[in-house]
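Prompt: Have a read of the protein record below and flag anything odd:
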Amino acid sequence: MDMRSRVNDALKTAMKNKEAARLSTLRLINAAIKDRDIAMRGTGEDVEVTDADVLAILGKMVKQRQESARAYEEGGRLELAEKELSEVEVIEEFLPKQLSKTQAEAAVTEAIAEVGADSIRDMGKVMGILKAKYTGQMDFGKVGPLVKDKLG
């Protein structure tokens, strides 16, 4: 089952079970996917959003909500921070399991070997391989410095 179908099924279930908070988050996910559809249509291509695109959208949504929650906590607005974190939990249900630190290091080493990277100039190639294979499974903001260390 593709990601869009999984989100739609979860949306229907949340409606039936009258889960307002969950329903709200699922509608946000659906809206983000439809926004990407519209943006892709604007380029003139007749392409539909792929599962990889949906994973990227979900990863971005999680990151946004974590940053918002952190800002709310710093501002003393704990109820808003809790709402953001509950949205993160719903979004993460659709993301694949995150790689552990050791798994991420192994993936980086494997990608470096696959590309034949030997200097920092090859970092873009390595990151491209990682993004193609592990979208949604690792935080590329944290992986970037790891790649840089291994190549440097």
About this structure: DSSP finds seven helices and no strands in the chain. The radius of gyration is 18 Å.
